[in-house]
Amino acid sequence: MALRGRRVVLGVAGGIAAYKAVELCRRLVDAGAWVSPVLTEDATRFIGALTFSALASEPARTSLFGGPEPIPHTRLGQSADLVIVAPATAKLLGKYAAGISDDLLSATLLATRAPVLVAPAMHTEMWEHAAVQENLATLRRRGVHVVDPESGRLAGGDVGEGRLADPSRIVAAAEALLSRGRDLAGVRVLVTAGGTREAIDPVRFVGNRSSGKMGYAVAEVASGRGAVVTLVSTQSRPVSESINVVAVESAEDMHREVLARFGDVDVVVMAAAVADFRPKVIAGEKLKKREGVPEVVLEPTPDILGALGESKGAQLLVGFAAETERLREHAADKLARKHLDLIVANDVSAADAGFEVDTNRAVLLDSSGAVEETPLLSKVALAGVILDQVAARLGLPPEGHP
Ligand code: PMT
What we know:
By secondary structure, this protein is of the alpha/beta class. It has helices at residues 20-30, 43-46, 49-55, 72-79, 90-98, 104-110, 124-128, 130-141, 167-180, 213-224, 251-262, 304-311, 327-337, 379-393; strands at residues 7-12, 34-39, 82-88, 116-120, 145-146, 150-153, 159-163, 188-193, 198-199, 205-206, 228-233, 244-247, 267-270, 277-279, 298-300, 316-323, 342-347, 359-360, 362-366, 371-373, 377-378.
């Protein structure tokens, strides 16, 4: 149902399983999708473009050049609701992971912001090769969805893992992906992002390394899934127009702005790194070096999540825990102490997770004791995992909030 009226680019790479993409194309069309087939040159050695042209919603494309459109990859990429690549060969996955765009399909993959679903198919030895698995891990980390291959008969009479997933599984994955696209429609989500700055004097502050990337990822993904998003942030990063940004600087500012909106939201996700302490006294003028080393006395800041936890009604409260040791233990303590529904614990001592980087790895603990551990993911992909849990806890039907 979710495929009805949606624009799907069906990429077909050059493998023996290309013939099964014909059946996939037919099923996508039957499900109501507008299907634009794109075949690589290698794919045309296995299956004719004419076959796809006859079954799809528009003629199959096979080249960046020579067609009626001057820049077909950007048009296809920008207008797509979903890009599916089936079969995705080792070569195609390698090019996509490396960002190489030397034909229409690889260029379209780089030119799209739509979700991408790849269905790999290749011989078992190739499928198990470290290069292929690492490329897939890279793509998964960037948020690409994968329908894993099945075991069975392969080309040349071999048997093993690497057979293209059945077209019905690929269609089901596409349906699920597009359904999820709007599952937060109408849900009011408040997200915080960035590190607070606690003034010492008019030019100096106590701060931390938070870039806001994690919070912005949650805000963008929630908005993309239909939520009405308010982002209370200390950072100024590019953001979709649909997101209402409230700029703040200190923990006090964030406390004020979040509490003022708490009654009007359904979900709060506190990804901000809020300072626990601030200078007790803020000097009115810039402190002078010649007057010696100042003594900065600190006092606690307001605990924003703690305050929300105390006063919450039906809202869902999601906190983060930035830890450098005993991750689960400290996170479980914060979950209970701040009356949260869910906490996302990240190890901020890791070089590839936590502050500033584009990736993160988390353990999600909820108030019922359930635990979900993620691998290293892009912050966008982790935002998706967090929002899946939010949607499930809100009891939202797959196709949207009533
Ligand atoms: O911004 P990035 O560079 O992308 O980095 C992401 C991140 C590491 C900042 C993010 O993933 C993260 O861990 N955010 C929470 C940081 C933090 O302040 O953790 P904490 O364990 O100190 O606090 C626990 C929770 O209480 C957090 O949700 C925090 O927002 C909240 N808190 C903390 C102090 C305070 N005074 N008020 C609060 O509400």
